[in-house]
Amino acid sequence: MAQRVLIVGASVGGATAATTLRAAGIETIMLEKELVKAKPCGGAVPPAAFREFDLPQQLIDRKVKNCLIVSPSGQETHVPVAGTVPTSDDYVAMVRREVFDGFLRQRAQERGATLIHGSLVGLQVNGAGVEARYRDQQGREHMLFADAVIGADGAYSPTAKFLGLPALPRAVAIQERIVLPPERMARWADTADLYLGYEVSPDLYAWAFPKRDHIAVGIGAGPGHTQAAKQLLVNLKQRLGPALDGGQLVLREAHALPMEPRRHMVFDRAMLVGDAAGLVVHTSGEGIYWAMKSGEMAAQTLAEYLDAPTAKNLRQYERRWWKQYGTMYQFLRFLQWWGYGNERQMEVFTEMCRNHDVQRLTFDSYMHKTMAPAPWLAQMKMTGDILLSEARNYLWRRKPVRELALA
Ligand SMILES: Cc1cc2nc3c(=O)[nH]c(=O)nc-3n(C[C@H](O)[C@H](O)[C@H](O)COP(=O)(O)OP(=O)(O)OC[C@H]3O[C@@H](n4cnc5c(N)ncnc54)[C@H](O)[C@@H]3O)c2cc1C
Fold first, then answer.
1. Which residues line ligand 1 (CB under 6 A)?
2. Between β-strands 201-210 and 215-221, what pairing exists: parallel, antiparallel or unpaired?
3. Which residues face 255 on adjacent strands?
């Protein structure tokens, strides 16, 4: 009998895994419970994703060329989107997930993957194979059999749950899509904003990202602050103030973000990718590229070992992943802890982003997913700037915006 792989979740991670498996000629079934509503998401995607996954530029609503970072006290840092060797093709792509995911899903189907609209409600994995139970749109239950399963089913991952794995610590992110009059939208023509401060995001950040015909404003709140999420979004909109005047709310959406990678992402006949594996980077909450990359890498490993998909063989995926991206993950995790740890550090973080080497190294790692060590002169300048900023902010505390507003 032909070998078959079941992928639970046909969003960015699952659809990329499906396309990769089809390229290896493997029968692939994607099971997806939500084919109508878009995944709640800021939709910022690095150019590396377009290059590496051969994505058409038509998926891009806007190319962001500038970032505005605003500290808790209202200090502003303007950062051009450019790497160490600036090119005209440096940008952050803004996409709408309904468009982006729709393309990836359709491409996987065109390459021969089958898409089933249904929700996974049971999963058993044993020596003989994988038995999955799913519920269709009419509420009927069906069985599916496969040689292996890839869990690409997001932050709540039912696949991980059925494999007996614990839930990961989760942040929550809420966003509103607001259609603005053209004269207000012009302010965000090619600029994305990031806001720091307890008032809008105690341990992550808040954003205003421009899409084709609207602005997406949202906040991230770490595991200890999820209850405050709605209020944080209200505060963000207050902070944006007149910039949103005349805006019309068209959608409010929220979802969880995993805040820890899983200790193991492979088991006998089973693999986890993207949010299900906890592969979101900490400083930016970025997960689209990582879900696609892990979907691809897991599928490549599975194609190699589908005759004997034991945890021991599939571990190759885990090893390759951490070898390629381990240092970057550790660094970005440290950066979140260091830069968003308290409001004084958020001020330092905002000031640090004025250093040209910091700007360019940051965008190299974001846009191209490479981390080259900075030349020693640049390192000394960065260290000097950070120490000065630390001294300034710890000796003379800046007042957060909300206190200024109350004064
Ligand atoms: C508000 C918000 C803003 C964000 N902004 C950004 C951003 O700007 N840039 C960025 O890179 N990342 C961002 N992220 C993170 C990004 O959305 C995720 O990291 C990314 O979508 C993970 O992809 P995935 O394929 O692993 O999982 P998901 O995209 O979560 O997809 C999981 C899929 O599994 C399906 N599924 C779940 N349960 C079942 C089931 N029982 N049966 C069948 N199917 C099931 C779901 O319907 C879904 O389609 C944001 C997240 C949030 C919440």
1. 8-9, 11-14, 31-34, 39-44, 119-120, 152-154, 158, 173, 175, 218, 255, 257, 274-276, 280, 285-289, 291
2. antiparallel
3. 173
pLDDT in tens, 269-283: 999 999 999 999 977
Asked if 311 contacts 37 with a C-beta cutoff of 8 angstroms, the reply is no
Asked if residue 25 has pLDDT above 60, the reply is: yes
**What domains are defined for the chain?**
4-42+97-168+260-332 (3.50.50.60), 66-94+170-259+340-407 (3.30.9.10)
Atom of ligand 1 minimally distant from the CA of 294: 26
Closest atom of ligand 1 to CA, residue 288: 11
Helix 288-305 and helix 12-23: axis angle, to 10°?
Answer: 30
Q: Which atom of ligand 1 is nearest to the CA of 280?
A: 19
Arithmetic mean of pLDDT, 331-340: 85
pLDDT in tens, 155-176: 999 999 999 999 999 999 999 9
